[in-house]
Amino acid sequence: MTGEPRRWADLKARVLSALVMVAVGAVEIWLGGLPFAALVLVVIGAMVWELARMTGRSVTGRTPGILAALAIVSLAGAMWLPSDHAELLLAVPALGLALTKRNDRRIATLYGLAALMAGYGLVALRDLGMEALIWLVAVVIASDVLGYFAGRILGGPKFWPAVSPKKTWSGTVAGWIGAALVGLAFVLWGGAGWGLVILSPLVAFAGQLGDIAESWIKRRAGVKDSSGLIPGHGGVMDRFDALIGAAVVVMALGLVMPLPLPGV
After folding, report:
1. How does DSSP classify residue 85?
2. Number of independent structural domains in the chain
3. Per the UniProt record, which residue ranges are transmembrane (predicted)?
4. Is position 219 within any domain?
C-alpha cells in the first residue's frame, strides 16, 4: 500500500501548476501577436538557460544566463528583422552552446537549435490563426495526460528503459490514441481534413521523442529535473519538451507537403 501514495505524490502540485499554465497559455494564444511572442521568448530563453546549466561543466557562472539572453535576442531577431536571412539567427544560440565548455556538446547543440526552431514555428503558426496552434497544444496535452495516467494505472513493459525508465508502452500508445481523438474532434467540429487523424499521433510521437531526448540529457547530467521553476513539473524543459518535438516536426512536414491543419 505504501507504493500507492508515492505513485500519486506529485499529482496535486502537478495539476495546480498545469491549471495555471493552461490559463496563461490560453489567454496568450487568444491575444496572439506581441503578447504571445513575448511568452514564447521567455519560455525559450528559460529552456536554453536550463539546457546550458545541465550540460555545462559547472552550474555556476554567467554562461547560462548569457546564452539565455542570446536565445531571446536571436529568436526576436529571426521573427522581426526585415531580412530574408533573419532565420539564420536561430542557429546562433546553438553555436554558443557548441563553443562553450560542456558535456554532451552535440546533443546540447541540437536540442538548443530545436528549441529555437520550435519557438519560431509556434509564433508563425499562431500568426496563421488560433485553430492550428490550439490543435498542436491539445495533441501534446492529450498525449501527456493519457500517457501519464495509463502508464501509472496499466504499467507494463518500458518503452526505452535505458533513457527514460518511467515511460511505458501502455502510456505511449495511450498518448497516440488521445492524439488521434483530438485530431478526430478537429475534423468533426473544426473543419479540418481527415488526414489530421493520422497526423495527430505522428506529432504526438514526435512530442514523446522530445520528452525522451530531454530525459536522456537529465540522466547524463545526473539530475531529476531540468530546474525547479515549476512546482510539480520541475523545470520549463520538463513541461515543454514534448511541445518542442511536436512543433519541429510540424514545421519540417509543412516545408515539404501541405498539412490538413484546422483553420489554415
Report:
1. T
2. 1
3. 12-30, 64-81, 107-125, 132-154, 174-199, 242-261
4. yes
> C-alpha cell of 40?
514564447
Tell me, yes or no, whether 169 lies in a domain.
yes
Q: Which of 9, 6, 8, 10 is nearest to 232 (CA)?
A: 10
Rounded Cα distance between 259 and 131, Å, is 13
Average predicted confidence (pLDDT) for the chain: 87
For CA atoms 100, 101, 105, 108, the dihedral sign is negative
The single residue listed with the C-alpha cell 542557429 is: 91
Tell me, yes or no, whether 241 lies in a domain: yes
Residue predicted with more confidence, 263 or 69: 69
Dihedral of alpha carbons 18, 23, 242, 259, sign: positive
> Counting beta carbons within 10 angstroms of the beta carbon of residue 91, is it exposed (0 to 12), middle (13 to 18) or buried (19 or more)?
middle
pTM listed for this prediction: 0.86
Q: Give the tens place of pLDDT for each residue, 106-135.
A: 889 999 999 999 999 999 999 988 999 999
Domain that holds residue 228: 3-256
Question: Count of residues for the chain?
Answer: 264
Residues sharing a CB contact under 8 Å with residue 178, sequence separation 6 or more, in sequence order: 142, 143, 145, 146, 147, 204
CA distance 40 to 127: 13
Q: Which amino acid, residue 46?
A: A
C-alpha cell at 161: 528503459
pLDDT on residue 59: 56
**Residue 18 maps to a domain:** yes
- Taking CA 183 as the corner, what is the angle to CA 196 and CA 214, rounded to the nearest 5 degrees? 95
Report whether 47 contacts 240 (CB < 8 A): yes
Which residues, at least 6 apart from 128, have a Cβ–Cβ distance to it below 8 Å? 261, 263, 264
Among candidate residues 210, 205, 140, the one with its CA nearest the CA of residue 173: 205
